[in-house]
Amino acid sequence: MAFLSQGSAVPPLPGRVPAPFPNPPAIMSSIISVANLSKTYGSGFKALKNVNLDIKRGEIFALLGPNGAGKTTLISIICGIANPSEGKVLVGGENIQTSYRKARSLIGLVPQELHTDAFESVWATVSFSRGLFGKPKNPAHIEKVLKDLSLWDKKDNKIITLSGGMKRRVMIAKALSHEPQILFLDEPTAGVDVELRKGMWEVVRTLQQSGVTIILTTHYIEEAEEMADRIGVINKGEIVLVEDKATLMQKLGKKRLTLHLQGKLSTLPESLSPYKLDLCDSGATLIYDYDTKGERTGITSLLGDLRTAGIRFNDLDTTQSSLEDIFVDLVRTS
User: Fold this and answer.
1) How far apart, in Å, are the Cα atoms of 314 and each of 157, 279, 288, 331?
2) Fewer Cβ in 10 A, N or C end of the chain?
């Protein structure tokens, strides 16, 4: 799972990161089950409202939501950092509240904030994290993790001397130090440049290949679109939707027809109102959104009605709505 230099391809390296499973299971069962989970703070604020969620073993699951939606609260409860007001969380079949040590040992957490001892060396801080989980010393494993994340040449450097991207890798190394089956990445590429972000995507893919289940929260919608097998959307403490990424794009994705007009329009004829067209670019462009799964797209009749109305265009193009478009629509209507 080598974290290579910019532009390098990451080769498949089975075994570089110790895998809890020799190969990802053919049929994925749930490794995390959240049932009827609610969280109400002393102020009366309800951060989570009756959340039900299953994470499949070996998948990359992206959890999306605006600021304050409940993402971090949900992760904190699953990881045993916060207690729920109601409901139950099972991690690998273990109850996170009644079997905390067993459940928590299955989890590696990379928080959004960079919490490290600034004056410790990379080697010391990663090794210490392993010890926190009661794992015996294993220098060979720590060496592999650091090499996989391209941190080996920095092993003796103090954390304070590292760049932001390097510190983020150290956080991942700490989370992997005790050989977890599940890795939570809370905004893992926040503040990371584009090239390093792509490198981290390769790291995540290789971890998944080794059998690790990845739960990712991100504000970069393209990150979820690039990485995730399934996507969950949370808003105002409630799960709005959980769906396979491909199915989500197919079910909710719409296509957009853009018509570049020969002449600018100030208004549209009443005869075109059924198409719900948007007049953009100071009247130079017409936008028509349509459902590809509908019985009829309406494009043929639209073009005919445009011709009848004397509206001509120079060019047209179509685009598929992105996950970001879908996400914005879901949050707006939930």
Assistant:
1) 61, 15, 16, 36
2) C
314: domain CATH number is: 3.30.70
Mean pLDDT by 10-residue block, N- to C-terminus, for the chain (334 residues)?
37 40 51 97 94 96 88 93 95 94 93 78 94 92 90 94 86 92 85 70 85 86 83 90 81 78 92 91 90 74 91 86 66 66
Long-range contacts of residues 2-11, Cβ cutoff 8 Å, at least 24 apart: 2/147, 2/148, 2/150, 3/148, 3/149, 3/150, 3/151, 3/169, 3/199, 3/200, 3/202, 3/203, 4/150, 4/199, 4/202, 5/150, 6/195, 6/199, 7/195, 10/199, 10/202, 10/203, 10/205, 10/206
* 15 domain-assigned: no
Neighbours of 200 (CB within 10 A): 22
- Decide if 18 contacts 173 (C-beta within 8 A): no
Q: Are residues 69 and 181 in the same domain?
A: yes
Q: Which pair of tokens denotes residue 255?
A: 């296509």
Expressed as residue numbers, the domain containing 230 is: 30-250
What's this model's pTM, rounded to 2 decimal places?
A: 0.70
From 217, 250, 283, give the residue that closes a domain: 250
Query: Are 285 and 272 contained in the same domain?
Result: yes
